[in-house]
Each structure stands twice: as structure tokens, then as C-alpha cells.
Amino acid sequence: MAFFRTIGGGEDLANSYTAVVNNEYRMGTSCAYMFANNSSFNEPVVIGNNVANCAYTFYNCASFNQPVTIPDNVISCGMMISNCAGFNQPVVIGNKVTNCYRMFMDAASFNQPVTIPDNVTTCSQMFSNCAGFNQPVVIGNNVTVCGYMLSNCASFNQPVTIPDNVTTCSSMFLNCTSFNQPVVIGNNVTACDSMFSNCGSFNQTI
């Protein structure tokens, strides 16, 4: 069983679902905040092909732990799975997504490989505070902002290649206490302040 909810503008959706069959949802063009702060929610969700905005869709859904496929029409995934403490499932990010700001922030259990498509420009704090995260990350070629991207990921220990379009890497690996892998920094980075701050294990040539 899933839930039916027609997305309007700005109303609180957390406890206002009507059951329907086939795990389908009426989302219109936005599912922003659709299940936000619903601590019990843990049902499969099929995101419609017309949806463009998935910001905060599962924000603070402590029990949510289902695979997520983000269709190609989606543009924003900012904070989509943030604060989902129990979440550890595969996520496929659509090719038109541009914003992954804080997408998995504070998802403490998350530990899945992630490919960031080339259309994405912002990855700041994408995995921040994902304490268990230690998987390969492929950063798309058009990303420009990686600030705090992996900050406080205490388990993270994977090689990282930062593409040439990236300009900001400030605090990218801040407090990654296990991190000791090669990092290739793109030619156009202008901000590296605190990039490896408090990385007690890090000992690589840059």
C-alpha cells in the first residue's frame, strides 16, 4: 500500500495521505516536503516523470529506507534525503539534476556508491555528517561547488578526483579522520581553505 497526495502550494503534508494502490503518487511538478518530518514513513515511492522539484522530499524521515530513482526531469534534490537516519539504499540521480545541496546530510547510515551527473553544479555539504559513508564518489564535470561536501564523514577513505570546473573546495574533507587517499584537484579551484582540516590520517602529496 502507498499513499495518494495531490501536491499544492505550501501546505503541511506530513500526516495527510490517502491510501491508493500500486505505490503511485499524484505529485504534479513538485514533491518538495512531501513526506518531510514523517518519522514513521517507509513505503516505496515512484517519482513521476513530470516532477521537477524534489527538495526536502524525505527530509527528517527517520524510518525511511527504500531505493530512490530520480527521473531526468528533476532539477533540484536539495536536502532530499537529509536527516534520514536509517536510510541506506541505492539512489539513482537523474541527468538533469543541477542542485544536490545537502542531499544526504546527516543520513548517518548511508553507505552506497553515488554518481553525480554532469548537469549538477552544486554539491556543497552533499554527504556532510554521513558518519558511515565510505563509497566511491564520481563528481560530474560541471560541478563548481564542493564546499563541505564530505565534511564529518569519519569513515570516508576513497580516492577523489575533482574536475576542472570546480572552483570551491573549502572544508571539503573537514574532520574526515580516516581519510588518506590520493586527491586530484582540478585546474580552476580558487578556494581550498580548511580543505583537509582535522584529517589526522591524511598524508598524501597534493
Explain the overall architecture.
The chain is low in regular secondary structure. Helices cover 0% and strands 9% of the residues. The protein contains no helices and eight strands. The protein has strands spanning 2-4, 18-20, 68-69, 91-92, 114-115, 137-138, 160-161, 183-184. The protein has a two-stranded antiparallel ribbon. A two-stranded parallel sheet has the order 3-4. The protein has a two-stranded parallel sheet with strand order 5-6.
Structure keywords:
8 strands; 206 residues; disordered N terminus; 9% strand; globular; two-stranded antiparallel ribbon; little secondary structure
Describe this structure in a few short sentences.
The chain is 0% helix and 9% strand. With 206 residues, it is mostly loops.
